[in-house]
Specification:
44% helix, Sig_transdc_resp-reg_receiver, CheY-like_superfamily, 6 helices, globular, Rossmann fold, alpha/beta, 5 strands
């Protein structure tokens, strides 16, 4: 079974470490990468794509030096290589306008405010990666035990 890639980005190492710790249980079937800037994410995505790897999900902080999370996710949403990549904004400092922009221009799938609930984040990742697998036409049976069974059931009806 090929592992799908999940990329987490936050410029604060302690927050990034907390996200990675919360998602640790998913590491048996997802390759979880971490970055500390938008530029680092874009570079990693180019490398993974060049290696023929799939990026199922990006979880991004909003307030970062350089590009904001909304700017990063908007840029990713416009890249034809990553049209089906799912996007989550995880932040404690986005304004109402930032959130609306994230939904409208970046096409985010989910928004979490800090502090988040670990179980909700894990469930969200499982749900979005399951949808990605079906959207990409991948053989879901390889991942079946790890997937959101409600999504699997809905897609197979």
């Amino acid at each position: 079974m090929d592992k799908l890639n999940l990329i987490c980005v936050d410029d604060q190492r302690e927050v990034l470490s907390a996200v990675l710790q919360d998602l640790q249980s998913l590491g048996q079937w997802l390759n979880i990468e971490d970055c500390e800037s938008a530029d680092e994410v874009l570079e990693l995505m180019d490398e993974l794509d060049a290696d023929g790897e799939m990026i199922a999900l990006i979880i991004s902080d909003h307030v970062m030096p350089g590009k904001t999370g909304v700017e990063l996710l908007t840029e990713i949403s416009k890249d034809s290589r990553f049209l089906r990549t799912r996007k989550v904004l995880l932040t404690g400092q986005a304004t109402h306008t930032d959130t609306i922009n994230a939904i409208n221009s970046a096409g985010i799938d989910r928004y979490f405010e800090k502090p988040w609930q670990a179980e909700q984040l894990v469930d969200c990742v499982r749900n979005l990666v399951t949808k990605y697998i079906f959207d990409m036409g991948l053989d879901y049976t390889e991942y079946h035990e790890h997937l959101d069974q409600n999504v699997v059931f809905d897609r197979l009806r």
